[in-house]
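Troubleshooting log. The previous run stalled partway through. Resubmitting the same two chains, unchanged.
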Amino acid sequence: MATDGNASLVNSLSAEYERLGLVVEGLIAGVWDWDIQTDEVYWSQILFRQLGYQANEIEPSLALLREHVHADDLGIFNRFIRDQIDQHKQNSITCRIRGAEGKYGQFRVGGKTLRNEHGEPLRFVGWMQDMSQSQFRSLVETTSDWVWEMDLEGCHTYSNHRVEQILGYTTDEFCQMQVLDFFHAEDRKEVERRFPELIAKKEGWSNWLIRIRGKDGNYRLLESSATPVLNASDELIGYRGIDRDVTERRLEQEEINDRLRFELLVSELSASFLSVPFGQIDEVLDHTMERLAEFFDLDQCAVAYLSPDDNESFLTRVWGNKNTVKLPLKLGPKRMPWTASIVDAGEVVRISDIEELPAEAEAERAYMHASGVKAYLTIPMELSGQVMGRLFAFDCRSIRDWSSSEVRRLQFIGGLIATLLVRKQQEMELETTRSMLMASVESSPAGIVIADVSDGKVRIVNRAALSISDMTAEAVSGMSPEEYTQYRRLFHSNGEPYAPEDLPLSRAILAGETSQNISMILELPDGEQKWLLSNAAPVRDALGEIVAGVVVFMDITELKQAAVEREMLIQELEDKNAELERFSYTVSHDLKSPLITIKGFLGLLRNEIQAGEMEKVDSRIEKIVAASDQMSRLLHELLELSRIGRVENAHELVSVTDLAQQAAILVGSAIEGRQVDVDIEADMPSILVDRIRMVEVFQNLIDNAVRFAGHGTEPKVQVGVQQREGNCECFVADNGAGIAPAYQEKVFGLFEQLQPELGGTGIGLAIVKRIVEVHGGEVWIESEGEGQGTKVCFTVPTPELGE
Amino acid sequence: MSDTPQARILLAEDNPDHAELILSCLKKEHKDIEIVQLSDGETTMDYLSQRGVYEDPDSSPRPSLILLDLRMPKVDGLEILSFVKDSEDLKQIPVVILTTSDAEQDMVRAYNSHANSYLVKPDDYDRMGELLRE
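Second attempt completed without errors. Output:
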């Protein structure tokens, strides 16, 4: 029926259709032809085979074809045909169609609608192609991986074109090669070791990393996987596999790892730079040099810091590998002048081979030869665009092409080190400042003590402080103010003891108080007291927190004593001055007094003589003569007084008894005239005195005593010693009128007379006082009042005898 | 003074010679005056306070003028001056200082203690007479 239909159809075909039929048979696609009006269907031979039928084994129909289409794709299939007929453009679809072995396969389906001259559809010709075969092939050829087959001898029997791109061989060249010969030696060893076992077990392999040398001589890293190929008898006849070129991937991986390692190095160094303790920068620099040498595979690594003043390197740290470095490196501007001049201008000096050093780098060449350096790199260490120092990298083993990555990295690290060097410089400046301060503290004449706020204990104590407190540095260090006051008592200037927390230093630490010019008394264990003048202040950190307290104190004991002595001297001078004033005042008055008498009476006398009144002439003249005598005596005694202390005779040892007796003889006439009984004690001690003056003392006293005693009924004068121990205390006593307490001191004043009518000058007791005082003694009056007699006492220091 | 028939002058002077000279001058000029002569400060104070031997106001009447030496034993002239001028009863009595001292400090202190006049004893007898007259 189909054949009949076919024949009738063929008849109505145009020549174009004839050619199509030929093409259809030549194609690999199966073709069907559907007469839309008759519903007759034609299948090509291939279509029968594609669907698993023998040719013409079954009556073809569109329904049968639809049965082979996967239920899920039937909609797409039907719509495609309808769309083709309705002139909707759609070239082809892909759908699952059940094939020969009852399995669904991917088929590409296409077709074309044939129409009459009116455009009405007459027939639809469809085709379908099994995609499984064609997709695999194109995949193999378009994949970026190398797909191959090989026999058990290791010869490749198939290779896709990738091999040309990966290894540089054509597929033909490659298939004639024994591939193991191109394996990297290590990998070949490994493959030859494992291969027999794989063959025996008929096993494949996966993700095997193998290095194979390409046509250009470079090794490529391949990641190889393979499955065994078996024949119908289940015998292993070869392998079919796929290799992926992972060379680039591996390089990228290595680069990432390398970067990671560098980042780790940088973070490690940064961390150590940030946390470097004060004074340990050198150690950190040494460690850094060692780490750089390790990382960049160097034999020597060094850093030189430039002094900001003269651009000379003044601080260098060198690390060298003991195994490869011949001579320890010594860095200085004179050793590498050419390098230094370039680096200091901010340029990198990159020397791969020291033999290629320019002529002007003569010093460098000689030095590198001597120290065994083959290649070196010198990098300016920059911070904010300023060259702070030079970083050196040396290779002593071979010439070396310094990569730009190495240079970049060392530059980066150089920048990091520069920050450390700035800190080092600041530390050195700080150390200098500290040294200056400590030298000032240590050599200060004032005592300085600094105590920490954390525990209140002494951290710094200078020499003067130790000397003033009479303590050792060992004893004071670490001592708290409380402990200090247990060893050395401190008092306020009013004598009250200091509570430890009230000390200026404690107040500075505890309350942040500043104290100025605090006077206090320090008592040493032997009881010696010192006057101190103290200032104290808190020490604050940059945030204003109190971290310590400082007390500065001076020993002002001598100043205090000097001030007291000065006060005493001033007082003494003032007293002397007042005395002098009184003296001149009284002298002028008392000298004038007899003068007035003399001239007054002379005037009176003259008037009386002129008036002829002569009866009083004699008495007037007597008064004038008496006043003249008085004046003469005054002048004489004043002269005597002024001589005391100025004119001194040699001191001699003489008994008080002798002195008193001599004096009594001189007063003799007065004693007799008044019939006074003078009793001089015998065996009085000897004293070391100016004999003449001391006789004068007794003479005046006895004379006075005789005069006053004379008024009593039984006038009596007694001379004796009332104390022999220590200073000899002598006295001259009378039983006369006595002296009221109010006048007992006054009588020693110049020209002081209680009873002028007794004919004294008022100078005698002043002379006594003066002489006794010149001898270092004192004089006073003991009298129980008027009528009780007068006792004048005086002391004379007893000489130390028996030496 | 007008209500008293006789001027009564108190002379406090420790120097007997000076006292004699002053008395001689005064007696020559004013025959009717009564002069009480005392030779030291203590006695003068007793007299003015009317105590001890001077207890009887009839025999120790108030003077109408005091002539006062400055330098005297026991109690000096300035103390007496202060006593007189601080006393309600006595302060009306004029006090004339008669002294050998021409020291400025004495003069100042005397006037500060309200002395009515300050005379320096001249070394000329006639001159003393003139001063006392004034």
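Takeaways: The first strand of chain B starts at residue 8 and ends at 12. Chain B touches chain A at residues 14-18, 20-21, 24, 39, 71, 73-74, 100-101, 103, 121-126, 128 (CB under 8 Å).
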